[in-house]
Specification:
2 copies of one chain form a homodimer. The first copy, chain A, is mainly α. Chain A contains 9 helices and no strands. In chain A, helix 7 packs across helix 8. Chains A and B meet through helix 1, helix 6, helix 7, helix 8 and helix 9 of A and helix 1, helix 6, helix 7, helix 8 and helix 9 of B. The structure holds a DNA duplex.
Chain lengths: ~210, ~210
DNA sequence: GTCTATAGTCGGATAGAC
DNA sequence: GTCTATCCGACTATAGAC
């Protein structure tokens, strides 16, 4: 699962290259189509390198989940910490959607989650890898709920799960829809968010964040 | 993809048994773990039967999607046609969640959608199979939107996609979460729906469905 | 309509040369 | 640290017996 020697510059570069290739293979072929050989083909390196650096294909997939989760958390934490309304939250979500979907990181994640069924190692590894990201989302939602009169009826954990689920499901569906890649549900979500914001404000406590 | 002779009672029974086994295998092993052999093992029949009756493993998976979509449409259409508020819609969704998740049909669908990446046949087959279901959901949403003053800003297609995506994503996540099978986000969703209903009603036209 | 047997391919993983 | 070569198991699909 890890190299047998202390990581050196060149090895780190190779490891990053392998992780890139795995993400690309997941996006292009899906979990059912990834193998050490297809991944190596995508990256133009030797199949045996995967086992040397990551121990197994599953070990490599967990490394993909971990790297992407950390990168995504670092990238969106500043914007999420400044969000003060549902509409602004949807705005960040739209930016995240545009950037991450075109990068393929959401597609790769859905594929790994599908693969986690029936693989305890993958399930646990991905669950752990996702923690920084889910924590960030939950903190944001908790902060927003504190400004509304409905905070007590709505569970942050449930809302976090719902938001995450929505993203994953959108990826699954847009991959299927022949016209899916051109459509995006975010104008509708922004309209809904603006409406809810407007309805909440007159009734909510006027706490200024 | 079809039997070479006119379907007879016993053949129909066998086909149904194979479809059942495929659904079970998808739920237990995921798309990456299904094969003609694992499916046959789940159902206790011979592997070659799959190719005789469905032509290929992918052909069988499309048959699973089609049967489940039709069954689900017929089962929930009456309840969905009677829904007159967001809260009631979430109530039906909760019943659907309880019944279909325990049946494994949503898990099977997410796995097939994951498998549709990189398989044009699977993607098209599932897309077609899902049509009766997505039509039913969209009609329900259109009817509900017509009773609110916000119908014009919210696209039924987008909301249909969002609702469907939410279900699929929840399945992916609850499979991952070690405690996921015991939790359900529906109390939170019902609270949110009740709130939105209450906020909408005073402003909406008092049309009685 | 269902079975056994098998052809041919591809996959995970390791040994050992460099 | 990266490569080639290889073992062996699992897979899809078909042929042909029953």
């Amino acid at each position: 699962m890890s190299p047998r020697t202390a990581p050196r510059p060149q090895a780190d570069e190779t490891r990053a290259r392998i992780v890139d290739a795995a993400l690309e293979a997941l996006r292009a072929n899906g979990i059912a189509g990834v193998s050490a050989r297809t991944i190596a083909r995508h990256g133009g390196f030797n199949q045996a390198l995967i086992f040397y650096h990551f121990g197994s294909v599953e070990g490599l997939l967990v490394a993909v989940a971990r790297r992407e989760s950390e990168r995504r958390s670092a990238l969106y934490a500043p914007a999420l910490r400044e969000v003060t309304s549902l509409l602004e939250l949807v705005g960040v979500a739209r930016r995240l959607h545009d950037e991450e979907f075109s990068r393929g990181s959401v597609a790769a994640l859905t594929q790994m989650l599908a693969g986690a069924v029936g693989s305890e190692e993958l399930a646990r590894g991905i669950w752990d890898a996702l923690e920084p990201w889910t924590t960030l989302v939950r903190e944001t939602i908790e902060r927003l709920l504190a400004d509304t009169p409905y905070g007590e009826a709505l569970s942050p954990d449930d809302l976090t799960a719902a938001v995450t689920a929505l993203f994953l499901g959108i990826e699954l569906l847009t991959g299927l829809d022949p016209n899916g890649r051109e459509r995006t549900p975010f104008s509708t979500m922004e309209a809904a968010a603006a409406g809810i914001d407007a309805l909440l404000r007159p009734q909510g406590a006027a706490t200024d964040g």
